[in-house]
Design a protein that fits this description.
This protein is an all-alpha fold and 74 residues long. The protein has helices at residues 6-25, 30-37, 41-48, 56-66. This is XRE family transcriptional regulator.
Amino acid sequence: MPTAPDDERVALSAFGRRVRELRKELGLSQEELADRADLHRTYVGSIERGERNVALINIHRLAKALGVPPGDLL
C-alpha cells in the first residue's frame, strides 16, 4: 500500500482519534459502532488507527451512528 504524505497521515490520524473519542464517550465498542453505522468492525478499527481514507458516505454513516453532525468528525 502506498504511503500518504505527512499532512495526509496527520489528517487521517486526527479523524480516527475523533471517531474513537466520540465512540468511547458513548461507551460503545468498535463492533457496536460498526453495527450502528452498517460498517465492518475491522474497517472501524482501521479508521481509528488512521489507516483509511474514509469515503464521504461512510463519514455520514459514522456521524449518524455517533449522533453528531458530520463536521464534528473533522
